[in-house]
Amino acid sequence: MKFVINNVNVVTADKIIYGGAVEIDGKIISKVSDSAISSEREIDGQGKYLIPGFIDMHCHGAKGLDFTDCTAKEMEELEKFYLSHGTTTMVATTLTAKWEIIENSLKTFSEYLSFNPDGVLVGVHMEGPWFSPAQSGAQDPSFMKKPNAKDLEELKKKYPFLLRVSAAPEIDEEMQFGRKGKELNIVVSAGHTDADFDTIVKANENGYTLLTHFYSGMKGVTRINAYRVAGAVEAGYYLDDMNVEIIADGKHLPQSLLKLIYKLKGADKISLITDATRGCGFKDGTKSFIGTKEDPMPIIIKDGVAFTADGQAFAGSTSTFDKIYKTMAKAVGNDFVALSKMASYNPAKIMNFTDRGEIREGKLADLLLIDENCEIEKIIYKGIEIK
Asked: Which residues are CB-neighbours of 59 under 8 A, at least 6 positions away?
């Protein structure tokens, strides 16, 4: 059924159409106009902003659940939770664990797809186990292993919904893992890496196109025998075609760093992510855990973020995407074109989601109506208003 949203400021990939209109036919955007469109069914946008739905390409879970060990029905619960916060597309992210647990999560995702082939969850991002123990962060180093190109090929054959992997390129022998990922159309990202500047440059030449949660789990400038050596962070700034994803919760990256990253990389090379874990959706003071049910690491939620039990390190984000979006807006101002690039257009481009990520004729009608304070007022998912 057709309907239109009139009297709305339409945020496209390169401009804002003030006082514009969008027509929706079924699941698809059928028309974008700079003036009102007549229709039997009309929504008054009240002069607010219409932006694309958020695309989160790195999220582990929420409300005590994790994609690594939850059931297919629980994946549906997570999908509904995040959709209510504006995420209309998500790549379910697993973490480093026993191999049989990881593979079981992939089988569970197959089950989810069998009864929900057209849902918010569109594929899987394996964040590990191919990492450097020196940059393990909240990932369990006892389950880490070297990247293997043959293993990656087998995984893709068995689980075609494997869309992205994160690995430490310095332990990728001759960068075979990165090249194989590129050959298989898998997004290969450098993460939890102790690589130096030169190694990241080489990785970028061999299939690594993204840096996993920029700054977190990677090396910056260090000293070796009094000599300064640039790290992965500096390579991320230096490489013009290297994309970075950022946890813009104001905790993992404070406002000062958000401003710096935005200034140096620009809106075209930044993607916002939640990297949210089990603790998302819980109030401050809640005790939970990170990792799997079989090998849990106790955490506590305080100051809007998860901490390890000793309070000495972060243990994952607890932010939904609407909060991430608002926090980034504080850093860069209400530049809705730039914000929507980072929240929707860029992730879609990186993940090769050609049918979404921007407000344009022929794209999916995944839309958010927001006010000037970035508060979500209406969610439209594939042409249906979510109550």
From this structure: 67, 82, 87, 90, 91, 92, 93, 273, 274, 275, 276
Contact predicate 289/296, CB 8 Å: yes
User: The tokens of 329 are what?
Assistant: 């807006």
Residue (of 80, 51, 83, 64) closest to 326 by Cα position: 51
- How confident is the model over 285-301, as a mean pLDDT? 90
d(CA 35, CA 309): 55
**How far out from the chain centre does Cα 220 lie?**
22
- DSSP 8-state code for residue 150: H
Cα–Cα distance measured from residue 193 to residue 222, given in angstroms and rounded to the nearest whole number: 14
Residue 312 confidence (pLDDT) above 90: no
Angstrom distance (rounded) from CA 36 to CA 247: 38
Q: What is the pLDDT of residues 217-273, one digit of tens each?
A: 999 999 999 999 999 999 999 999 999 999 999 999 999 999 999 999 999 999 999
Total length of the chain:
387
34-50, pLDDT tens digit by residue? 999 999 999 999 999 99
Which residue from 73, 78, 107 is spatially nearest to 92, judged by alpha carbons? 78
Confirm whether pTM is higher than 0.90: yes
